[in-house]
Amino acid sequence: MLRRTLWVAVVVGCCALPTRAVLIAYDGFNYPPSSNLGGQNGGSGFSTPWALGVAATVAAGSLSSGALQTTGNSVFTQAPTESLNRTLNFTLGTPGTSAYFSFLVQSPTTPDPNLSYGLGLLGTIDNLFIGKASFPPANSQYVLERFHGPGQVSSGVTAVAGATVLLVVHADFTAGNDTFRLYVNPTPGGSEPATANAVKNDFDFGTFNAVQINGTATYLFDELRIGTTYADAFAIPEPGIGLLTLGLLPLVRRGRLSAKRRSQA
């Protein structure tokens, strides 16, 4: 009877939970303000801390973009800066799969056309840069490109001083060239736009398990999300069904042991 009651509790509890997007990696940069980002190990979905040796500090408060929910603080990098890597605890890029990436960026001053800022995806065959470019012809706009400018595809959206921008990328992986779609400032909670601001499908990315806060400018970076659905690009990590089930499993095991002891008495 106890075993049956516990399993009913598991089922009812799981069913009572609302359906939510499930992030596979997230960092809201909930670290002490003014601390160096290098060595910080918060968030979820990562196997290593942020790499050391980068002039990046934690800024108090989150960047804001419409109705997007945020947590923690943000990252401030001051030129000249380096790139900051972090390894994920999973690998993406298997042919036939998709992934979504999103983050916030802002240039506090008039963006320098010769300096860049954004996110790098480090693949086994090639790398992708998502952000404000530093190479012509679109070096004042948000783009998709291979590192250092090759194959640049512009969104047509120009970076503006003090304007926080939400960048969302939909990646479709294949055995050949992969497809990346960039959405600039999509509405949080809405449907995936029918048309992307930029599409890049001229190279094979391979697989990857590392990201890079990538830039040479002075800029702010925040709210890094990785998921497998468009809704994940705007989600906040919360305890889900897995956590509830794991929490109840010890009770279920104890119930089984009690039942076994009674049957042996």
Describe the structure.
It is a single chain. The relative contact order is 0.23. The chain contains two helices and 14 strands; from the N terminus they run αββββββββββββββα. With 265 residues, it is an alpha+beta fold. A hairpin with a 6-residue loop joins strand 8 and strand 9. The protein has a single domain, classed as Jelly Rolls (Sandwich), CATH 2.60.120.
Describe what is shown at a glance.
With 265 residues, this protein is of the alpha+beta class. The protein contains 2 helices and 14 strands, in the order αββββββββββββββα. Strands 1, 2, 3, 5, 10, 11, 12 and 14 form an 8-stranded antiparallel β-sheet that branches.
